[in-house]
Amino acid sequence: MTGESERFDSRLLSLIPHRPPMLLINRIVNVSEKQSSAIVLIDEKTPFFDLKHGVPAWIGIEYMGQTAALIAGYQLEQGLVEPHLGFLIGARSYQAQQDYFPPGKSIQVHCQEEAVVGNELASFNCKIYYDDINDWLAQASLSVLRQPLLK
């Protein structure tokens, strides 16, 4: 049986506030000031997993949101932003090539910070791929409201 420490990259826990069972991404591929990539394992231990089909593709929006949150965590770690909460307020043009992410596959989520308006509104372009091919499985643009933490 795989433990949480083997299932989740420990650095995830230092960059984003999500915790199991709602920590949906498993490993960081890379993270920087403006982009991030993460791996999601699709198996029976994955939240929202359906034995017959896998994970519904609409969950991809949350995979994208958590991968985008890695960028904010990295920016905070580097002292580039003040501590804040991020609220996903919109997803535009979510398109999925299939209804489910199938069992036994891992997928890779890429997010690019496209714009920040003031310090409160950020937008990201995100895509999901299989980790072994280049064709995208899902894509969307996310809008996130950044709310400063009260001191």
Features:
globular; 3 helices; alpha+beta; six-stranded antiparallel β-sheet; two-stranded antiparallel sheet; 151 residues
Structure characterization notes:
- The protein has 151 residues and is of the alpha+beta class.
- It is built from three helices and eight strands, in the order ααβββαβββββ.
- The strands form two sheets. The chain has a six-stranded antiparallel sheet with strand order 1-2-6-7-8-4.
- The protein is globular, with a radius of gyration of 15 Å.
- The mean pLDDT is 93.
Summarize the helix and strand pattern as letters. HHEEEHEEEEE
Termini separation (Å)? Answer: 42 Å
Structural class: alpha+beta
Which range best describes the helical content: under 10%, 10-25%, 25-40%, 40-55%, 55-70% or over 70%?
10-25%
Radius of gyration: 15 Å
Which sheet architecture does the biggest sheet show? 6 strands, antiparallel
**Strand count:** 8
Uncertain spans: none
Shape: globular
Which whole number gives the mean pLDDT? 93
Q: DSSP helix count? A: 3
Strand order of the largest sheet: 1-2-6-7-8-4
Percent of residues in β-strands = 35-45%
Structure at a glance:
The chain is 19% helix and 42% strand. The protein contains three helices and eight strands.
